Amino acid sequence: MKILESLENRRTVYAINNNVKATEDEIIKVVKKATELVPDAFNMHSARVVLLLGEKHEELWDGIYDVFGGKVPREKMDSFKAGAGTILYFYDEDVVNKMAEENKAYAQNFPVWANQANGMLQISIWSALRELGIGASLQHYNPVIDEMVRKLTGTPDSYKLIAQMPFGGITEAPLPKESEDIEKRVKIIGSL
């Protein structure tokens, strides 16, 4: 049941700093291993991850503020910038389009499947970071920031930006999660 414990402990953490207990190598290992293990339809390996640390991580959040011309609060960008790093999630449209071309009967599904695989990758890395004592949140400033991100990271035009995950040491725990009536979302039909 360890995976359920990890999912339960994974929370949106906004109050972060650059003081993490894990080493840079441990963080890199988690990102690489999760990217390797998360499944993708037709084994297409569409997900791409860019890990920004140090100065590049800070440049990203300054860049996002600049792209929006001050329309996003500076304090909010600075709270993300205060973290230890940011993970950028993409999928490679060249890979997705090639798979669609080779499998015409399923062509329209490949972008959907690439997004599904990316979502699985995001929750896997997010949960694994939490196991390292690291807090994170998931942000979506794309597509407004796409061009700036390409220039900052040198990623090709075929990389479709999906999300940004600033992470760092936890300076303030999130509020307890409200319980819900899960029966409204899960329906059981039949029995074993």
Plain-language structure description:
- Strands 1, 2, 3, 4 and 5 form a 5-stranded antiparallel β-sheet that branches.
- The chain contains 7 helices and 5 strands, in the order H-E-H-E-H-H-E-H-H-E-H-E.
- It starts with a helix and ends in a 22-residue tail after the last strand.
- Helix 3 runs antiparallel to helix 4 and helix 3 runs antiparallel to helix 7 (146-153).
- The protein has helices at 2-9, 24-37, 54-67, 74-81, 93-102, 110-131, 146-153; strands at 16-17, 47-53, 85-92, 134-136, 159-170.
- The protein is α+β, with helices and mostly antiparallel strands and 192 residues long.
Coarse shape: globular
End-to-end separation in angstroms reads: 20 Å
Structural class of the secondary structure composition?
A: alpha+beta
Helical amount: 40-55%
Low-confidence stretches: none
- Residue-averaged pLDDT: 97
Task: Please report the total strand number as a whole number.
Answer: 5
Q: Into which percentage range does the β-strand content fall?
A: 15-25%
Order of helices and strands: HEHEHHEHHEHE
- The total of helices stands at 7
Specify the biggest β-sheet: 5 strands, antiparallel
CA gyration radius, whole angstroms? 18 Å
